[in-house]
What we know:
The protein is mainly alpha-helical. The protein is built from 11 helices and 2 strands; from the N terminus they run ααααββααααααα.
Amino acid sequence: MTNALPATASQSVRAERAFTVDALAESLGRRISDGEFEVGTWIRQAKLAEEYGVSRTPVALALSRLEAVGVVERIANRGFRVRLPTTRDVMEVVEVRALLEGHAAFLAAERISAAQLERLRAAVKQFREVVSGLQEGRPEGWARSRWHEANALFHATIFEAAGNRQLKTSSDLLHNRLPRNATWSAMRADIRLLSQNANQHEGIALAIDLREGDRARRLAIAHVETARDIMCAHLEELA
Length: 239
């Protein structure tokens, strides 16, 4: 858990200066969902106001909207932080996410293109590079950013290859309850867990490459369930 706003805000965000509360809430929600703000991170409203070129009032209103849908939580006398999910949240979200990601992997094995396969392979390579980098002493911030990037590429490519927009829309809705990269916070740069995670991604990619849809489904479900177990153990420690 950290008190600092991540320094990875995009140039496009810095360049924009006219934001409505709706646009702010959408932008912040997307950044949280994508893992730019870790679960439990305190939100520095003054820093966000400066970054978006607005006063603190619309930032506070945008955060209140995100609070209403369960993305952030307000702590008395301290402000807002990215919401810590409960064990029940994790169990319920993962139960649905496993079905969606499993079916997406099954469909991807039937429909994936050569270009999409190359993107999966590139993501797997990047997972491996993160593990190697940490073993060589690279900083955790570098590893986290690279891992988030690879994770987003891998899963977005599978849903794209599945060719079913409703599957992706349904999956995206779940990220209000549990951000895409919440697993990283639970793994905490543990090389053993990261290696296991990379192996699972590689296994899914190989099954899709071999057009083994049933196997791809099973591996995708197992991958999500492993993440569930890691996150639940982490939440128990925090409790």
